[in-house]
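User: Hi! I'm working on a homework problem where we have to compare a predicted structure to a textbook description. Could you give me the structure for the chain below?
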Amino acid sequence: MKIIFSIAFIVLFNTILAQASASIIAGVNLPEISMMDLSDNNTITLNAEIPNDAGKALDLQSVDNSKWINYTSAIVPGGTSRKIQASISAGSLPPGIELELGIGSYFGFGEGVLGISEGIVSLNTMPQTIINGIGGAYTGDGVNNGHQLNFRLSISDYAQLDYESVGSVEVTYTLTDN
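Assistant: Happy to help. Predicted structure tokens:
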């Protein structure tokens, strides 16, 4: 029995010593990724409500918070970051009315260097940063992932209000390098 064990040990030891190793260099190429979308592209409608009593202001409590902005960002060039801007790209609002956009803080199941909300902005035709500091990150997709967008109307000048005025605007979002 001792001889069989010794022979088995010698064969096993020689097999271990006879092994060789090799290595391969593997390269990995990651593309630059910069993608963004809205969780829902349906039209929103905001209405002013008639006050209950004379002497009270118009009720502009109509808010739409059904939209979420999602993004994926990878390989940010030169160690910079990205931002998302919003602007009114078509249409017009009734005189005396402004469209405000509130941007929520990040929420969801993404990870990485997620952007920071700029709070509330009054939209116009000039692009305004709404989310800044986006690095390599992803927000998750759809509702309850990313940054919630809250739209509401505000009155900038009561003297310009005209009950026959209606307005419709298109808001464009742009993800760009800082």
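For your comparison, note the following. Confidence is low (pLDDT under 50) at residues 1-12. The radius of gyration is 29 Å. Good luck with the assignment!
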